[in-house]
Each structure stands twice: as structure tokens, then as C-alpha cells.
Design a protein that fits this description.
The complex is a heterodimer. By secondary structure, chain A is of the alpha+beta class. Chain A has helices spanning about 15-30, 35-55, 90-95, 110-115, and strands spanning about 5-10, 65-70, 75-80, 120-125, 130-140. The model of chain B has no long low-confidence stretch (mean pLDDT about 90). The termini of chain B are far apart. Chain B has five helices and five strands, in the order E-E-H-E-H-E-H-H-E-H. The chains are: A alpha+beta, B alpha/beta.
């Protein structure tokens, strides 16, 4: 299935860009005219994934985070990509309350929150080769409307 | 994000406005820790009525402060939590740790302040 629209964004791994990424994804998704709730869901999930890229992927050091969004008739796919540390054990990382950085007040709920607010979350990663998080949400509010 | 501190006896009311994410959580943490050193605080109430966005980083800050309060034998509560923030609190187990009230007065009464 081909997307009806696509955008690619790249930004520095600074925490001040977490808000920017949320708003950019939300603005792009708005084209489909989803509900405010659905937009908030996307903002929350994007915030978690981008925060992970900054804190864990790049360990708060210099790097670029990429966000690619693909819009379909009534759904969105968002890829958040870093070329940082990578995850050794993805299943462990996705476990609720697991965090590799407890000393930083990190809860270990990032993936759980993403899974709660999106329909599907896929994680691709290899140590030393970076991480890609793929978030997918279908907008139930839209039914089969196409513009 | 803005923070307003109000003291009611030994209870510190922390009113947060704006977005509570990883970026603002660090700032919040530092401000709270500095404020608590100043006063004779034992209990803390977090007022979420003006929080426009929160992700799990926000919960991390709350739980971190909860541990500090426990060390002082104090109590903590959160108030004015909307359903989205409540959902994130529930997922993280925060609701098993501390009470949620509908408003500050209820919280003050129940905290014994």
C-alpha cells in the first residue's frame, strides 16, 4: 500500500527537540483530521521514542535523530531512528519497568506507553548499529473516509 | 514549563504548568529539591491542573521525589489529574504508591496537613 503523504525530519539529539518532534508529528497527522485524542496519543508515543533515542541511543551526547512519517488513507506510520548505541536485548528493553538507567529517575515505561497509545510498535536494533522504532496507528475516527 | 510553590504548614504544594517531559523533568527535579531544602517540608502535593502534556519521564520525577519524601517520613499526593495523565500513572504503578484527589483541599485534609 502506498502512502498518500510522507515527510522526513532530522534533528539534533537535544531534549529541547522532544517537544518539536511531538508537534511536528501531530501537525503532519492532522491532515487526516483525526480526533484530538488520537493526536495526543501520537504526541505521547513520539515523545517516548524520541526521548529513548536521546537518552539511550545517544546517551545524551551529540547525534541526529530521524523521524519519518507516512500517512495512509486512515492511518499513520512513524519511524524514529537513531544511529547510537543499539539495544542488546530488545525483549528485556520492552519489559515494563525495565530500565538501563535507574539512577536517572527513569521509569522504564517508554515502550509500555508507546504500546498503550499506538496500535503496533516494532523495534529493530543491533548493538553499535542504532535503533529504529516503528509506531503504527489507525484512526478509528475516520472509518473509510478518503480525501 | 512553570512551577509555582505554595507552603501550607509542613505541606508544599507544587503547581506545574505546561509540558512535563524529559526536557522539563530535570528542571523540575532541581527546583523541587532546592525548595525542599529551604523549608521544613514534610508532605508534598502535586497539582496537575495546568499540565498540558506529560509522558513517562514526568512520572519518573514524581516517583523520584516520592522516595525523598518517604525518607523524611512525609506523605505525597497528586491532584487534578486528567484521564490521559491518570492512565499513564496507572500503567506505571504510581497509583499503588500514592493517592489521587480531585482538588487541593481534599488532599490537604487527607494528608493530615
Amino acid at each position: 500500500m502506498q502512502p498518500v503523504n510522507e515527510m522526513k525530519l532530522e534533528f539534533l539529539s537535544k531534549s529541547s527537540n522532544e517537544s518539536f518532534a511531538r508537534v511536528a508529528a501531530a501537525a503532519f497527522a492532522s491532515q487526516l483530521d483525526p480526533t484530538i485524542e488520537e493526536i495526543s496519543d501520537i504526541k505521547t508515543a513520539v515523545s517516548e521514542a524520541v526521548t529513548n533515542a536521546i537518552i539511550h541511543g545517544y546517551e545524551n551526547k551529540y547525534g541526529f535523530v530521524k523521524m519519518n512519517c507516512r500517512l495512509y488513507a486512515d492511518s499513520i506510520e512513524i519511524e524514529i531512528i537513531d544511529e547510537g548505541k543499539g539495544i542488546e536485548d530488545i525483549n528485556l528493553a520492552r519489559q515494563p519497568l525495565y530500565t538501563s538507567r535507574p539512577e536517572m529517575d527513569r521509569l522504564g515505561m517508554g515502550f509500555t506507553v508507546m504500546e498503550s497509545f499506538m496500535d503496533r510498535v516494532d523495534v529493530f536494533s543491533e548493538p553499535g548499529k542504532g535503533t529504529t522504532v516503528l509506531l503504527y496507528k489507525s484512526f478509528k475516527s475516520l472509518g473509510n473516509t478518503t480525501v | 514549563m512553570h512551577i509555582k510553590f505554595t507552603n501550607k504548614g509542613t505541606t508544599l504544594i507544587i503547581s506545574i504548568s505546561g509540558e512535563l517531559d524529559h526536557h522539563s523533568a530535570e528542571h523540575l527535579r532541581q527546583k523541587i529539591d532546592a525548595e525542599m531544602v529551604k523549608a521544613t517540608t514534610r508532605n508534598v502535593i502535586f497539582d496537575f491542573s495546568k499540565v498540558s502534556f506529560m509522558d513517562s519521564s514526568g512520572v519518573g520525577v514524581i516517583i523520584g521525589r516520592y522516595r525523598n519524601i518517604q525518607n523524611l517520613n512525609g506523605k505525597m499526593a497528586v491532584v487534578n489529574v486528567d484521564s490521559r495523565i491518570g492512565r499513564i500513572f496507572e500503567m506505571s504503578g504510581l497509583l499503588n504508591l500514592l493517592p489521587v484527589y480531585d482538588n487541593i483541599d481534599d488532599a490537604l485534609k487527607n494528608l493530615g496537613a
